[in-house]
Amino acid sequence: MINRILAYLGRHLDRQLMILVSILLVMGLLILFSASGGSVERVAAQAGNIGVALAIMWLAANIPLHHLASVALPLYIVGLVLLVAVELVGLEVNGAQRWLDLGFARVQPSELMKIAVPMMLAWYFDRYEAVLRFSNFIVATILVVIPVLLIASQPDLGTSLLVAVAGFYVLFLAGLSMRLLIGTGVVGIAALPFLWSAMHDYQRQRVMTLLDPMQDPLGAGYHTIQSTIAMGSGGVLGKGWLNGTQSHLEFLPERSTDFIFAVFGEEFGLLGNLVLILLFMLVIGRGLIIAANAPTLFARLLAGGVSLTFFTYVFVNMGMVGGLLPVVGVPLPLISYGGTSLVTLLFGIGLLMSIRTHRRLVPT
Amino acid sequence: MRRTVELRDHQRELYVFQFRLTVAAIVVGVVFLVLFVRLFYLQVIQHDYYQLLAEQNRVNIVPVVPHRGVILDRNGVTLATNYAAYTLEITPSEVSDVDALIEQISELVEVTPKDLRRFRKMLDEEPDFSSIPIRTRLNDAEVAHFAVNRYRIPGAQINARLFRHYPNAEMASHVVGYIGRLSETDYKGLERQGRAFNYTKSDYIGKVGLEQFYEQELRGVTGYEHVETDANGHSIRTLRSILPVSGNNLLLAMDVRLQQIAEEAFGDYRGSLVAIEPETGGVLAFVSRPGFDSNLFVEGIDPAQWAAMNNSPDHPLNNRALQGVYPPGSTFKPFMALAGLELGKRTANYSISDPGYFMLGGRGHVFRDWKAGGHGIVDMHKAIVESCDTYFYELAQDLGIDMIHDFIAQFGLGERTGIDIAGEVSGLLPSREWKEQRFNQRWFVGDTISVGIGQGYNLVTPLQLASATAILANGGQVFRPHLVRHIQNAQTNELKTVEPFPVAQVPLQPRHLDLVREAMVDVTRPGGTAAWAGSGAKYAFAGKTGTAQVIGLKGQKYDEEAIDERHRDHALFIGFAPAEAPKIALAVLVENGGHGSSTAAPIARKVIDYYLLGVEPKPLAPRAAVVESEGD
């Protein structure tokens, strides 16, 4: 009986994704316990977040594909309205207006756009599936640029970049001209020296610090320095769970949120990092396979966009902690503490599951 | 038709999509590979480096300054010790505006202009000190008041430190010396000697005197605590501690009470006294007047005070016993007498008739005796007792400079004694070679004649004179004079004995010694040059007075009252007692004191009275009441 209920509940859940996500979530709780200095409350709070996010994932997985497609436009419009609302009546936290108080909860509309933008684009391209013209790409670009600019003005450069990248992935997968792509890239690189000469000294200084954090070891460079120390001192096998000195002696800032990967690397070493990277690669790989086998253009583009966005999260966070990329506020998917990004990410995973499991039910 | 186009487009679109998905998958793979390579670089190749950084982050190595050894006299009286107290210190590197900070501090605790000057001086001299004291010796109320307001004053902190204290202040300051903050020069010196590991940059080091000479014994070994520290600098726990090893204590041969009596006996006179135990070479008293308060230097001396001391015409910072050079004058005569006897140029009975002058050869160069008209018939005994110059002029001529130099050199005059404080000068015992080297001039017989009465080129330090007197007193045993008798291990209380330190033996015949000693005893008896100072002595008091000319008054009669005080002659006295078995030998020099008999000998008398009899000094009978028979 119970088995039948479980089977019914799980019929739209992709088994492989479910297993991978579960492992990552458990690992996240374990490392959060260490990163928070053994705080049971923190772990319990995150477990609560996970519960909510899993429920949302289950919901997303159970939405039939054609319903998903019809939700795309309203969701995008609601997202835009909320972004404008943030601009007007948003809460200011740490000098940036990102939050909207809905009375029962505070939400970050920019977070919603990470899913809404690829969904919107996928829906838009799906409508013109047969004849994709250059003008379609212009419209699609505008659909991406509007929310990106709104988010960037909050200011939240990290999220706006992630949204832009998510939009770009859909454009790319939809067949954006390679020549245009390469041409834009070349022009962009060629413009850099002119941009550089047009900048103020303080702006240049900021860019330099971004590129070389050691220039400002107690300011902008502090995070990167401490996280590379944590990572490097972990060695091959790590210092062991709960034994990371960089995190436990509070040298590492934001150790349970954006920099939790440094705690992981310090305590579990290169071997642990390898396992973690492989798990993420499997999640992304599974997403790409789902995309490849998706029944409609909308589903393909959405699955591909969501998978690659997930990849971007992982890479940007790990690159930042490892000192490869400048410090931008991007959490490590499924591991970092925090409810909002978890909900967004698991919603995305839910979409992948929906695309996977509703394949045969929808006639093409 | 239209439908086929749509289909073709559809397939083409699917192909494009799958191709691009493959490209994306490859990019994902490559990016993760790059990421992994980066992590491999951090965690494998650079692991040691980052591990070190993590350790440095985490572990703070805090030096624990050892307890500096104390300095005690022969009876256990303390000359230098430590006490714990609070200082308020500023770390200039953490402060942007030092003046504003001092302003803030002075609202909480009193900061005197003197404190401020000292702080500025230290800041100028050693700007990279970790912390510089702005106030020392805070009382409990001040500490509490500051602690409450501490959060408002970053960059300033209260530290408990051990302070050096010299309870006797000025007394024996030239012996004990002082410690002070480690200077850059000190630190470089320690680095050269490979001892810098034992010091931190904000440490103290012996600068002068015993504090400096015995730095290695007194210092001890710095301990270290490895303290685990969090990012806010809070200590979490001590991981490892290496306890400091306390420095060793110095037990001196000096008798502090004797030293005090000697110093007080000088009154307002400048000068020096060195008293030595003849059997061991241990220094019983070591006076250089005026002195200074050693305590002033410990926390860095106030520049105004420093300037005052440095520019004072009395030169309180000069260690006269060690560095002052003076002609020995007539105190040279007993040694000359021994030379004459030992080298066979004189016998006890040999006498001369003294006309009051000595004429060199036939050239008519006249050397005057201090006593116009002369001493009559003079043998060696009388020559010493009355300090007859003519006798010794003639003896000098008979001996010649080479014999004089070689014989007297055995007593250590004109040579560093090797005492255990630094800065000693050698003085000068003239010789033919020396004059040729120094002036590129040959030695004249006339030079020898003035050397015979301790004038001429002769220059000695009071310490050398005292050491030579001790050799005379103990029958020729040459000891290296030493201030420290024992070094006491602070952990085990084990004593390491420094004395005695016999260096050589001067071959002297007992009968010659007896002759000179008997004559020296008669110096302090009626008829002798120091009869006044020796009157009523309850022991055989051997001595010899002397006078050292400050400026040559050629052919003029010396008039003590008429010339400026600072141009008066220096008074000298050497002595030992009891003459038959000497327990103490000393040399006294009183700058501008006039004749040895009137100022130097009474000081010696007071010192010996206390040392041998325990007699506390009382003012001697006024000078005017005594019939003087002044020497030299």
Q: What report would you give on this structure?
A:
Chain A is mainly α and 364 residues long. In chain A, 71% of the residues lie in helices and 3% in strands. Chain A folds into two domains: 15-62 and 216-359, no CATH class; 72-198. A three-stranded antiparallel sheet of chain A has the order 1-2-3. Chain B has three domains: 2-45; 62-252, Penicillin-binding protein 2a (Domain 2); 256-309 and 323-625, 3-Layer(aba) Sandwich (Beta-lactamase). In chain B, strand 14 (357-360) and strand 15 (365-368) form a beta hairpin. Mean pLDDT of chain B is 85; it is low at 1-6, 553-557 and 621-631. Chain A binds chain B through residues 129-132, 169, 172-175, 226, 228-236, 245-246, 249-251, 265, 269-270, 273-274, 277, 280-281, 284-285, 288, 291-292, 297, 300-301, 304, 308, 311, 315, 318-319, 322-324, and chain B through 6, 9-10, 13, 16-18, 20-21, 24-25, 28-29, 31-32, 34-36, 38-40, 42-44, 46-47, 49-51, 53-55, 57-58, 228-232, 236.
Brief synopsis:
The complex is a heterodimer of chains A (364) and B (632). Chain A has 364 residues and is mostly helical.
Task: Describe the SSE topology.
The complex is a heterodimer of chains A (364) and B (632).
Chain A: H1 2-9, H2 15-35, H3 40-62, H4 65-89, E1 91-93, E2 96-101, E3 106-107, H5 109-127, H6 134-152, H7 157-174, H8 178-198, H9 201-211, H10 222-234, H11 245-248, H12 260-292, H13 297-321, H14 339-357
Antiparallel strand pairs in A: 1-2, 2-3
Chain B: H1 2-45, H2 47-58, E1 59-64, E2 71-72, E3 78-90, H3 98-108, H4 113-125, E4 132-138, H5 140-149, E5 156-165, H6 173-176, E6 178-181, H7 184-193, E7 204-208, H8 209-213, H9 215-219, E8 223-229, E9 235-242, E10 249-252, H10 256-265, E11 271-276, E12 283-289, H11 295-298, H12 303-311, H13 320-323, H14 333-342, E13 352-354, E14 357-360, E15 365-368, E16 376-378, H15 380-385, H16 389-409, H17 432-439, H18 445-451, H19 462-473, E17 477-479, E18 484-488, E19 495-497, E20 502-505, H20 510-523, H21 531-534, E21 542-548, E22 570-577, E23 584-590, H22 596-613
Parallel strand pairs in B: 2-10
Antiparallel strand pairs in B: 1-8, 2-3, 3-4, 3-5, 6-7, 8-9, 10-18, 11-12, 11-23, 13-16, 14-15, 17-20, 18-19, 21-22, 22-23
Helix pairs in contact in B: 10-22, 14-16, 14-20, 16-18
